[in-house]
Design a protein that fits this description.
Length: 143
C-alpha cells in the first residue's frame, strides 16, 4: 500500500525499514561511502510502498524557493515490476498536493535520466560527480 508521511508520522518500524533499504541500495549496492541519513529526513515527506518491507521509496522536501526529491529506489527483489513509475507518479502527486506552484528540480544519477524524462523532466547543464557517482540536474514545470 502506498503511503506519504512526514518524519513525525513514521512508525519506528517504518523508519527502520526506510533506512535499511536506503543503506542497502545507496551504500552497499552502489558501493558508496557517505552519510546516508541526514537532516533533510526531518523535514521531508516520505513516499513509500510497503509489503512487510519497504519495496519502493523516495523523499520530498523544500529546497531554497522550490521543491526537490531524492533517495528514489526500488528494492532489488521488486525491480522490473513497474514500481519505479508508480513511485514517481505518487511523488509528483504529493508535490502537487503539498508544494503546488513551486519549481521542481532534482539531481538524478546520469544512468536514470531517461526514466525522469518520460515524466516531463528536462536535463540542465553538464553532468557532475556527487558522492562518487555522475549526476545531472533536472527540472520539471511546477504542478
Amino acid at each position: 500500500m502506498w503511503r506519504t508521511k512526514s518524519f513525525s508520522e513514521l512508525s519506528t518500524k517504518e523508519l527502520f525499514e526506510i533506512y535499511r533499504v536506503r543503506v542497502a541500495t545507496f551504500v552497499v549496492e552502489q558501493n558508496r561511502v557517505y552519510q546516508e541519513v541526514d537532516n533533510d529526513d526531518l523535514n521531508a515527506l516520505h513516499v513509500f510502498d510497503q509489503d512487510d518491507h519497504i519495496v519502493a521509496y523516495a523523499r520530498i522536501y523544500k529546497e531554497n524557493q522550490g521543491v526537490t526529491f531524492g533517495r528514489v529506489l526500488t528494492d532489488p527483489k521488486h525491480r522490473g515490476q513497474g514500481l519505479g513509475g508508480q513511485l514517481l507518479e505518487h511523488v509528483l502527486s504529493a508535490i502537487k498536493k503539498h508544494y503546488s506552484g513551486l519549481d521542481i528540480s532534482i539531481e538524478a544519477q546520469v544512468q536514470v535520466q531517461g526514466f525522469y524524462q518520460k515524466y516531463g523532466f528536462r536535463s540542465v547543464g553538464e553532468p557532475f560527480i556527487f558522492n562518487s557517482t555522475p549526476h545531472i540536474k533536472m527540472v520539471h514545470d511546477p504542478l
